[in-house]
């Protein structure tokens, strides 16, 4: 006899919070795995004698594979118990971190990062599908804000700790840390998560993977949402992967001091995430997204033009500046992810969010790849061309401000209908 899965909104408040924080911890490991590559870039470039373009290629390898796995997951994610899916994919993701830690050269590291993308790229979609299954529509902004504190936790704790360990014990040590943390979270998930099978249609016809996948991309509402996700990730990744190399190469920041910059930004984003999520429930997801898009343009331009504004930035100034960038970028993503849960029909939510995760990773990979193409490093280690990335990112951000009005929520899904 199987246990009936709880319907959306039926969990007791304490159990709901526990599930949300468990999902946040799961995402913490995925985001730390991706984010820690950024501040480690100066060490990796020195250890493997690679250029910024080659490093961006390693970032892209993760993103391309994450996008491919997310796209394939759209054909099967709604056919299995989400708890079992989460546990299986999370375990494989943990193996990918072990492979990264044991990589003997850059080529093996790239292959290991590709494996990490194949597994980690699905976990975000599974988590958002679980939110859609368990949390009532009018509270999904709040729930998304809780889960997305994982981004802040990674910046506050994960990345600084990883950078500190790397400076002391070598670049492999952050990945060993992830292996230990992921296994502890995996064991907790096995005990805490309830069965998640309410989305299963036991009377459905046999699987038709390719037609159903193509059907996701034949719905105009889906295509508009996918484009919004793609451009949002693209403009962010034109900037983010190259912050640490520019700070180290152009401004003379010590690699070990990068941790303080990320920690300051993470603390600010941590305290803002849940506020932004609750605010988007009250004021509307479209409106809050647009506010933070406009807010993000200024820190994007400042971050990408730091070397031109001044050749000597004290560390304390950078520590004070970075929170504005982190809060702005995270503030866009919270209402965006909450909005994505309301676009598809509930029976296709998992498939839609998997496809959306794939589109997100394609935007991530393309942004990192394009952002590194026109960057050049001179004999002194100075990187040029970063300002162009900023202008492109700002322009694309303004496009998303306009385009979000064309992304509609499924009728009756939200409690507060935001203005389009």
What distinguishing features does this structure have?
17 helices; mainly alpha; disordered C terminus; two-stranded antiparallel sheet
Give the SSE order as H and E letters: HHHHHHHHHHHHHHHHEEH
Oligomeric state, counting identical vs distinct chains: single chain
Structural class by sheet pairing and helices: mainly alpha
Helical element count?
17
Annotation, overall tally of beta strands: 2
For the biggest sheet, the summary is: 2 strands, antiparallel
For the largest beta sheet, what order do the strands appear in spatially? 1-2
Radius of gyration: 20 Å
Structure description:
By secondary structure, the chain is mainly α. Helices cover 73% and strands 1% of the residues. α4 runs antiparallel to α5 (106-134). 55% of the residues are buried.
Compact overview of the structure:
The chain has 420 residues and is an all-alpha fold.
Task: Describe the SSE topology.
Layout: H1 13-35, H2 41-48, H3 52-73, H4 82-101, H5 106-134, H6 140-147, H7 149-169, H8 173-192, H9 209-216, H10 220-237, H11 243-251, H12 258-283, H13 285-304, H14 306-309, H15 315-340, H16 349-373, E1 376-377, E2 383-384, H17 386-403
Antiparallel strand pairs: 1-2
Helix pairs in contact: 1-5, 1-7, 1-8, 3-5, 3-16, 4-5, 4-8, 5-16, 6-12, 6-15, 7-8, 7-12, 10-15, 10-16, 10-17, 12-13, 12-15, 13-15, 13-17
């Amino acid at each position: 006899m199987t246990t009936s899965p709880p319907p959306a909104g039926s969990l007791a408040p304490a159990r709901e919070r526990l599930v949300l924080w468990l999902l946040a911890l799961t995402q913490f490991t995925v985001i730390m795995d991706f984010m820690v590559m950024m501040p480690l870039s100066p060490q990796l470039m020195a250890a493997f004698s690679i250029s910024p373009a080659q490093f961006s290629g390693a970032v892209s390898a993760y993103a391309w594979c994450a996008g491919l796995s997310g796209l394939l997951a759209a054909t099967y994610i709604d056919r299995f118990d989400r708890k079992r899916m989460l546990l299986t994919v999370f375990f494989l993701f943990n193996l990918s971190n072990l492979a990264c830690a044991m990589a003997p050269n850059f080529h093996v590291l790239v292959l290991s990062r590709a494996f990490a993308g194949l597994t980690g790229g699905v976990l975000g979609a599974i988590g958002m599908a679980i939110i859609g299954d368990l949390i009532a529509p009018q509270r999904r902004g709040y729930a998304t804000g809780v889960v997305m504190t994982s981004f802040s936790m990674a910046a506050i704790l994960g990345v600084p700790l990883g950078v500190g360990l790397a400076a002391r014990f070598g670049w492999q040590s952050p990945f060993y840390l992830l292996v230990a943390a992921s296994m502890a979270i995996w064991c907790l998930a096995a005990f805490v998560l309830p069965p998640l099978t309410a989305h299963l249609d036991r009377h459905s016809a046999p699987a038709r993977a390719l037609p159903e996948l193509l059907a996701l991309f034949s719905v105009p509402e889906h295509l508009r949402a996918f484009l919004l996700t793609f451009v949002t990730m693209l403009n962010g990744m034109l900037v983010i992967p190259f912050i640490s190399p520019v700070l180290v190469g152009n401004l003379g920041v010590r690699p070990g001091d990068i941790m303080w910059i990320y920690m300051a930004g993470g603390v600010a984003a941590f305290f803002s995430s849940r506020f932004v999520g609750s605010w988007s429930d009250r004021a509307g997801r479209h409106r809050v997204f647009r506010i933070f898009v406009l807010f993000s343009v200024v820190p994007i331009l400042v971050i990408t033009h730091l070397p031109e504004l001044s050749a000597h930035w004290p560390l304390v100034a950078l520590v004070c500046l970075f929170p504005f960038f982190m809060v702005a970028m995270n503030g866009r993503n919270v209402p965006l992810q909450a909005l994505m849960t309301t676009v598809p029909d509930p029976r296709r939510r998992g498939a839609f969010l998997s496809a959306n995760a794939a589109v997100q990773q394609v935007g991530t990979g393309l942004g990192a790849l394009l952002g590194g193409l026109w960057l050049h490093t001179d004999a002194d280690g100075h990187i040029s061309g970063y300002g162009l990335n900023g202008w492109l990112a700002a322009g694309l951000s303004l496009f998303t401000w306009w385009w979000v009005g064309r992304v509609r929520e499924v009728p009756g899904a939200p409690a507060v209908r935001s203005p389009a």
